[in-house]
Design brief:
Length: about 425
């Protein structure tokens, strides 16, 4: 695999055909937000005849509108003046902190404590599920411009979540028998070698952690480097490791990430999916709905149909989180709902397993079920798929309808809904 970092994207041969102003804008945005594109994305996924309007190009390359205007102007002046690298980096770090790098209270609320001390590299937001961030898995084969974990990739240690080794995770899990699911996440854990991944997974299979029934691995590797499962030097070792997890009696799920149907179209990804299914792992797919890439019911319907055909279960259709380049990618919630419902109407029941639109907000996973008019008031009908407060899970509640709101904290309680369902957002009403 050959990867090209963000600062070099404007100098790639196909990008040199763009005007210099556009290439300058790309360099400016890449000085703040992380970008990386590999040869598979460049050669097999992007339609260069349609660039820069090709959806895969929009997904992986910088665009001026990804930064707020004032932020862009500050960074543009530095880049245009040829400021020293250290100066550009220091200003970029300052600007990054303004882009809400850890939404949903990830560091403040999700990091658990043991003996009064925080356990870095773990998150425990929902009672049954713990997230594990292995240190060597905190990068990806290529980056999505909308990634809500972009702060993992910018080299700011105070923003990065990582677990140096498995010992602290095992100790924490042993002390929490209510945990049934462990999600190994990143970044992308499947960028790690099979040996390093084994060091993370094998301890989860020990008899002392029998309450951990389900192991999930979050990955974009099928989309951005399917050869990880086919021809990488340790691809066979990786397949054996995944098979061993299933043979040990654990349910193993690969939480794959497909943003556009083109990511399912190559011979390599189809072979990789078939090989992974042979390990006994279940493949589920999730992605946010974002402008410029997949804000079209036909795109989602086609993608879901293809997933079902290949043996990948549609799982979540997320709302773009309020972080990073969200102003560029975010859709009004009412539009996201219309796209999702339009896609549902085009597919059979087997493809209707993707729940959405879903917001992973501070109080929990909020499902936007629909719009309604009740007592003369137009509202969003919502429910909690998961909640920090287990008693809220499954509860239906109402939010005042908005034509412009793009995220949960822009909504307000309606029809007597308990403000506690909205967390801090309700206090702003």
């Amino acid at each position: 695999m050959r990867a090209v970092p963000g600062e070099r994207l404007a100098d790639l041969p196909p990008v040199r055909a763009f005007d210099e102003a556009t290439r300058h804008e790309m360099r400016v945005v890449a000085s703040v937000l992380p970008f990386k594109v590999n040869n598979y994305v460049l050669d097999e996924l992007i339609d260069w005849d349609r660039a820069p309007d090709d959806p895969m190009f929009r997904l992986t390359f910088p665009h001026r509108a990804m930064l707020p205007e004032k932020m862009f102007a500050v960074m543009s002046d530095l880049v245009a003046a040829g400021a020293p690298r250290a100066v550009v980096r220091a200003e970029a770090d300052r600007q990054r902190r303004l882009l809400h790098p850890h939404p949903g209270g990830q560091l403040e609320l999700n990091v658990p404590r043991m003996g009064g001390v925080a356990v870095p590299g773990l998150q425990h937001k929902y009672r049954e599920t713990v997230l594990l961030f292995p240190a060597h898995g905190q990068t990806c084969h290529a980056y999505c411009g909308y990634c809500f974990r972009w702060a993992q990739f910018v080299g700011m240690p105070e923003l990065k979540q990582h677990l140096p080794g498995p010992d602290a995770a095992v100790e924490y899990l042993r002390a929490h028998p209510e945990v049934t699911d462990v999600l190994v996440t990143g970044g992308d854990p499947l960028i790690m070698s099979a040996d390093r991944l084994r060091a993370v997974l094998e301890p989860l299979l020990s008899p002392g952690l029998g309450h951990v029934r389900n192991i999930r691995i979050g990955t974009k590797a099928l989309s951005y480097w399917p050869y990880r499962f086919l021809t990488d030097p340790d691809a066979d070792d990786l397949m054996r490791l995944l098979s061993e997890c299933v043979a040990a009696g654990r349910s193993l799920a690969l939480m794959t990430h497909f943003s556009h149907g083109r990511e399912l179209s190559t011979p390599a990804v189809r072979r990789a999916i078939a090989r992974l299914r042979g390990t006994g792992a279940v493949l589920r797919a999730q992605a946010p709905m974002v402008r410029h890439v997949n804000d079209d019911p036909g795109v989602w319907a086609d993608m879901w149909r293809e997933m079902v055909q290949l043996g990948v279960q549609p799982y979540y259709t997320f709302v773009e989180r309020d972080t990073g380049a969200s102003e560029y990618f975010a859709l009004p919630l009412t539009r996201a709902l219309a796209v999702y419902q339009g896609a549902l109407r085009r597919v059979s029941g087997l493809a209707r397993t993707a729940r959405g639109p879903v917001m992973s907000a501070t109080p929990g996973k909020v499902l936007l079920s629909g719009e309604a008019e009740i007592g003369g008031q137009k509202v969003f009908v919502c429910s909690f798929l998961q909640s920090r407060e287990p008693g809220h899970t499954g509860r239906v509640f109402f939010a005042s309808w908005s034509p412009t709101a793009t995220w949960f904290d822009e909504l307000r309680p309606a029809l007597g809904t308990d403000p506690a369902f909205f967390g801090d957002a309700a206090a702003l009403a």
